[in-house]
Predict the 3D structure of the following.
Amino acid sequence: MKNNASPASPAVKRPRARGMRVSTDSGSSLTVRPVQRADLDQVIDIDATVTGLEKRKYWASVFRRYGSGLHDEQQFLVAVSEGRVVGFIIGEVRDWEFGSPPCGWVFGIDVDPRARLGGVGTQLLQAIRDRFRRAGVRKLRTMLALDNTLILSFFRSQGMMAGPLIALEMDLDA
Amino acid sequence: MKLQKNTELALCSVLEFAGAPQRQISAGEIAAKYGASPHHLAKVLAQLARSGIVTSARGAGGGYRFAANAKRLTLLDIIQMFEKVTHPAVAQNTDRAACTPVESALGAVFAEIDANAKATLSSITQTTMLRLIDRRKEDGPPILALEHSDLPER
């Protein structure tokens, strides 16, 4: 897997946040920690492998917004096994949007297909749950495509049930 | 959402078997627990056995045992063995070459409901259901009861 890491920006020094070291179901050691700039290429690779799209600008902006590691309300976490990023999760506490009291939203999660079925997704979700709990919220929500059975099944297996919101859409005529 | 009696029995039976995969459970035990007609249950279990979800053992110690993969077998897989999960208006819309605007609009609404139902049912495996059941045991009585299609309307 390529890893063209760019040097960390000297303008912003981030505290070295400690990660949580856990063992995967397969026995190898897994660390879940806040993302670092050097992880981005691997995150982009995982996303591109799954979606077929390489979204460099998108991930750069996600990193800028959520990658500081300074606030429990904004989380961009990666799971690292044997020095390799094998998964990520991104989320944010949002207040009163869609009429919803403050709650934690997970809007991105994925695991390298080669590392699946090893408890990585479970550890990532647990890590973000812990951080959101520290931020004071007591509800976790997410939204996903109806045909994304894989991720739907994952969230269901973690105990998530349908929430009180419904997604609607309309076309905007040119 | 209303399910046919046989479908409900199938769902309950499979969960009973999946919850005790090492055990052979008799049809009589399932029938007694769910107040089911042994005749209805026999047909349901025969269908589940033909599908490979359970295996049957004849004789004095006979019964049925779970034979599928609980992490892969979803609620939709079981339901679709016994009934369609598509509203008739949706099926009508796709079958007819031309339908009226009223039928088309209704079909669109019911298609939304179908899509949500299918997404939910296809994402819940037996393993996930068993965890849900364990949580219900901890929390108390269930919130929702299954609706029987043969119950009189209130």
User: Anything to note?
Assistant: The CA atoms of residues 45 and 52 of chain B lie 10 Å apart. Chain B touches chain A at residues 74, 115-116, 118-120, 122-125, 127-128, 131-132, 135 (CB under 8 Å).
